[in-house]
Structures are given as structure tokens and as C-alpha cells.
Write a structure and sequence with these properties.
Order of helices and strands: EHHEHEHEHEEHHHHH
Number of helices: 10
Helix content: 40-55%
Amino acid sequence: RRLSRPGLFERSLPADEPYAYFPLHLQPELSTNVLSPFWLDQPPLVENIARSLPLGMRLYVKEHVPMLGLLPYEYYERLRRIPNVRLVDPHLSSLELIRNCRLVLTITGTAGFEGILLGRPLVTFSDIFYSAIDGVQRCHAPEQLPRIIRAALASGPVPDQHVHAYVAALLEDAFVFDMDELWHPERPYESIRDAASTQALYRGYLEVLDRVAEPSV
């Protein structure tokens, strides 16, 4: 109820305000606890990003909706009080926020891949599946942030040819299966193991491994 009170999250945003976008992560989760264990504390990271942005640019921060109610009210108050930060309504469209921003920053989130596909410069704080795309900026330490943000804004979006080549490689190794069936909470293990979608996953994964293992000519 406290989170729903007016004044904490902003929904009415200026139309022409230049901003960078940083979506908060679901925690605990593999995306931070395993893939980026040195970036677990997100409020200090938000503070460092806000300090590193060019003058006149805001940082829009959006909470991951499933996290609502799991953190104390003071957590969001801390974020809201950071100069240069707008704590936006968690129910706003992430795709629209990405589409209208100047820069996307993420630890390892899928918002980074969405930013690449929507033609936005990107800064990540750990290695993730789309880090293989040439042009993705990676930050290893807070003191690098001002330089990396300037470089990302100056270089602009990841070149289209790099994005197209990466997506084509993904599709070449892609296969269809029902992922929801693997996560069914009430089915016994044996039922999931022997399901048609699981067998499709096994076959598809083995085909990819076979291609990778083939000796180059």
C-alpha cells in the first residue's frame, strides 16, 4: 500500500528529456548472484551511474515488477533521493523507455539485448550472452563509468551488420520446444523428463553440440 502512494514512482515523464535507462534486477537470481556477484548492491551502482552521466541527462530507474513488496519502502526512497534520478513507475513499458532513451545500462539483463535490437548504445557490467556482439561496452569498475558512458554515447548503437550477424547465428542454432512444460511446479520429475518438449530440448541441444564439435575444414 505504501508503494502505491503518489509521489514515490513517477508516471508522467517529460516528453523531450534526454535520459539513460537502468532497469533494476530481480534478486536473488542467477543474473546477478552467479553471473555478476560483484554488482549485487544496486543502489550504489545507480548512484555511480547518475554521477557519471553528461550534464543535462537524467537516469531513469525502473523496478522489476515481481520485486514489489519484497524490499522496504526506504530502499526506493534512497533511489528517489539520488540527484539526477527519476524512479519511474514499474508498470511503464520497458520497451518504450528503451526506445526513447539515449543509452541503456544493465548488469546482465535482457533489457540490454532489447536495447541493441532497438538501436540504442549499451553498457553492461558483466558478461552475458549478447556480450559477443561487437560494439557492446563493458564496465569492469566504477571509476571507468564516465569514460565508458562517453564512449558509448559517442559511438552510438551497435552497428546493424553486427546485430544481424549475431541474430542469424542464434537462429541457426535455435530449435523449438515448450519451455513452460519444464517449469511446471506440480508435475513429477519423471513426467517432465519424458515429456515430448523435453525430448525436443535434448535432441536440439545435442545437434548444436555435434555442430560445434565438427572439425573445421
